[in-house]
Amino acid sequence: LKQYEKAIAILNSAIANMPNNPLFYRELGYAYMNTNDIDNAVKSYTKGIDIAGPADTESKAEMAWNLAVIYRDKKHNTDEYEKWGKQAKDWAPVNSNLGRTLKNVTF
Q1: Nearby residues of 16 by Cβ (< 8 Å), 6 or more positions away
Q2: Could you write out the DSSP letters of every residue in 54-95?
Q3: Stated pTM of the model
Q4: pLDDT tens column, 11-45
Q5: How many CB atoms lie within 10 A of CB 16?
């Protein structure tokens, strides 16, 4: 459906009611990324990672990988790409899709 602007409004409302849910920030980052609002995408993913629990490694890995892609493709910052890429690889469960994808990626 790709109704990212509507999703952003809904997710911001959800965050206002449940500010400690990292999944809302993950989805908000994705919506911002798809509207090319890169700065807010970075803020959303970073906040999601910061509030995620230690056991929520798969969600943190997804957000870290999205940050890596932003820094590689949009901000052209190799150091941040490598930092977040390595973090995503460390957090990603080896049996997850992302874990299998990152298995052979070198940073």
Answers
A1: none
A2: TT-HHHHHHHHHHHHHHHHHTS--HHHHHHHHHHHHHHS-TT
A3: 0.94
A4: 999 999 999 999 999 999 999 999 999 999 999 99
A5: 9
